[in-house]
Amino acid sequence: MWSKGEEKAKAVEESIEALEKIEGELKEKKYFEAEGIGYLDLAFGWIAYWLPVWEKVGSMQLMKEEKFPAITSWISKFLSHPVIKDKLPPRDEMVVYFEERREVIYNRYYPKQKEN
To answer: Which H or E element spans position 107?
Structure first.
């Protein structure tokens, strides 16, 4: 979300590799702790909520259901859990926030060419 060009392509590739490792750990499990939300579910909770926001803002797709069926199933269960679902900030506000942050970072690291 924060980079462009080759840097972005490399970051996407590395992110997908990390998701593949997580996918392998989640297979056949409802949650990481198997019976209910545990510490690992909370630690990986950003994947469920933030990753889709970052994908939208960064115009990229990392989470493909056919490639990551265990993670996408876990996301659905995690986000609908009563402990989680009513505690998250509104998604549309998060999109706006990260779009603004992205612009600040782009302007800092990718300054526009000045016209002569």
So the answer is: helix 91-109
36-46 burial, b for 16+ CB within 10 Å, e for fewer?
ebeeebeebbe
pLDDT digits (tens, 9 = 90+) for 19-28: 999 898 887 7
DSSP string, 11-75: HHHHHHHHHHHHHHHHTT-SSTTSSS--HHHHHTHHHHHHHHHHHHHHT-----TTT-HHHHHHH
pTM: 0.76
The model's pLDDT over 15-59, given as tens digits with 9 standing for 90+, comes to 999 999 989 888 777 666 666 788 888 888 888 999 999 999 999
| Domain 5-109: CATH architecture, name and number where available | Up-down Bundle (1.20)
CA 41, 43, 46, 51: dihedral to nearest 10 degrees? Answer: -90
